[in-house]
Amino acid sequence: MKKKIAIITIFCCLFSALALGYFYLFQEESITTIVPENIKPLAKESETVTETKTPVEEKKAQSSSPVEEEQAPPVVSIETLEGSQPSDALEFYQKGNFSRAMELFTKDFEGKKQEEEKAYSLAYMAKCLEYMGNKEKAKETWQLLLGQYPKSPYCGDAQYYLSDFTETTLQNQKMLSEASLHAEKSLGGKKAALKMAQFSVSQANKLDTWRYYSYAMKASLSNAERKEIQKILDPIVADMLTSPEATGCLVYKVVQGDNLTRIARKNKSSVEMMRYINKLKSDAINIGRELKVIGGLPYIEVYKNSYFLVVYLPNHLYLKSYEIGLGKDNKTPPGVFSIKTKQKNPDWYTEENGKILKIPFNDPRNTLGTRWMGFSHEGFGIHGTKEPESIGKSMSNGCVRMKNEEVEQLFEIVGLGTQVTIK
C-alpha cells in the first residue's frame, strides 16, 4: 500500500512540474510578441546605452559620408576639349559614361604613336578621372602629360587643373600664367587667361590686363564675350599703345632725306602704322621731328563662330576689333591669306550671264561700301556695306563685311601684305 502511495505522489509531482513549465513558456512568448520591435528595454541608470553596427552597416555609413574624398561630384556640364574629334570614346564621355570613356581613351593612348594623338587621349583620360571624382589620379595623369608632352596645347589644360594644387598664391599665378600661353588651342588655357585677366583688372594692372585678354581673344569665345573684352581693352590700348614696355615702341628722329616709307622700311613696319600711331593727317614730316615707331607688321584674325575680326600687334597684343558679317551658306573660306589690293570707293565686279559686269561705286547695286581690301584668294576680301543690318550675320557672297566707318579705320591701319587668317 505504501508503495502505491509513493508512485502516485511521484507521478503528481512530475505532472505539476510539466504544467508549470508549459505555463511559463506560454507567458514569455505572449509577452515577446506584443512588444514592438522598435522599443528597446530601458537600461539601468548605471548602464550606458551603445548602438552597435554590423560590418555591413558600418561600411554603408562610411560610404554615405559627404566628406569622402573620392566621391564623384555631380556633373553640371561636361567640358569638351579643343581639337576634339568624333569617336566612340568621346561619345561615351559626352554622355557622362566616364568609366567606359576611360577604357576607350586608355586603349587609344596605348595604341597611338603620334605624340599629339597620345597627348589628346591622355588629356581626356585626366578629364574622365576629374568627373569620376578621383582627384589624385587626375593630378597624376595631368602631370604625366606635362612631363611627356611639354609642347602639347593640352599642357594648358594640365596647368589649369594643377594650379589648384599649388601651395602659395604666387605659385598659383605662375601656373595660370603658363597655362594662358596655350589659350588659343586649349580650353584650360583660355580659362586661365580669363582668370588672370580678371585678377589683373582687380589689381588695376593695365599691362597684364592687356596681355591676358589678348591671349583670351585668340581662343574660342562667343560674340558677347568678345564685345565685353573689347570694352575693356580699347581704352587701355589708346592709353598704352606707344609704351616701350608694352609694345617696344621706339622714338625715331627724322633726318634729312627721310620719308615715312624709308623710316617704315628701316623698322620693318608700314606707312599705315606710322600714320596711325603718330596720328598723322599727311605724309609730310619735318627734319628733327620725333616719330614713334613700332617694329613689325600687325596681322588680322577672323573668328567665324563669333562674327569678329581682331587686329593684333606684331607682339600678339590686341590692337583693334570689329564685329563683322560673313558669307551665307558658310561661303567665307577658312585659311591664311594676305591683303593684295586696297581701294577707296571701289567698283564692284560681278558675273552675270557668263560675263563680268562692272558696277560703279555710286550704283545702288554696288554692295562693297566705301573700302575694299582684296585677298590673295581671288574674289574674296574685306569691304564695307550698305546693309549694316547684315553685320553679325551670314549674308554676303563669301567676303568679310564691315560697317563703313569701321572698314575705313581698318583701311588706315593695315597695309598691303598684311596677313589675314580666317578660322
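the 2nd protein, sequnce then structure:
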Amino acid sequence: MSAPTLRINPVSPEPELIKQAAEALTLGQIVVIPTDTVYGIAQLASPTADPEELKKIKERPGEKNIPLLVASLADLEHYSTELPAYAKELAAQHWPGGLTLVVRASKAMPPQFIGEDGSVALRMPACNIALALMEAAEAPLACSSANISGKPPATAFAELDPLLAERVSLIVDGGGLSGGVPSTVICCLNKQPKLLRPGAVRVKS
C-alpha cells in the first residue's frame, strides 16, 4: 500500500502542509519530496537519524554516502571546514541550483552522515518546497533520488516506483519537475576543484 500523499503548491507552499511534512521528518520518518532536479527520498540529518534506513529503502550499496540538501549559503560554511575560496565562489554562482559540492565536514555535521574521508556532499536546491521543509525542520535533509538503485529517477509524482512508495512514510507531491537531470557534483577537498559527475549545471574549467 502506498504511503499517504500531501499535494503541496510548488510555487507557494502552504504553511500548514509544510508543517505536516516537516513534523514527519522531525519524527525520523522517511519522506519523498520534490527537488529542482528529480524527486528525492529524504530524512532529517539529525544526530539521532540512521542513514542506513534510507539506503535500505533504496537498496543502495552501504558504502555510498547520502548527499545533503541545505537551506542557505551560510549552511555551506556552517557544515564544512577548511572550505576553499573556489567552493564559496561556485556556491555563490550556482546556488540555489543543481550543483553539489563535496567538502570537508565540520563538527556541526552528525558523524553518521560524514564519509570515511571526512567529507560530505552539500547542495542548496532551487525548490520552494524543499527549502520550506528545511526551514520548518531547522536541519538539512539527507536526500537521494527517489528510485530503487539502478532504476530511473522520477521527475513527476506519477513516475514514482510503487515499491518505493510502499516503503516510505509520506509522499510530498509537488507536481512535475522541470529539471529532470541529476546535479553536477564537484569535489572541493583539494587546492583545485575536480568534476566528479556532469549534470544539471555546466561549470567552466
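The mean pLDDT is 94. Residues 11 and 73 are 21 Å apart (CA to CA).
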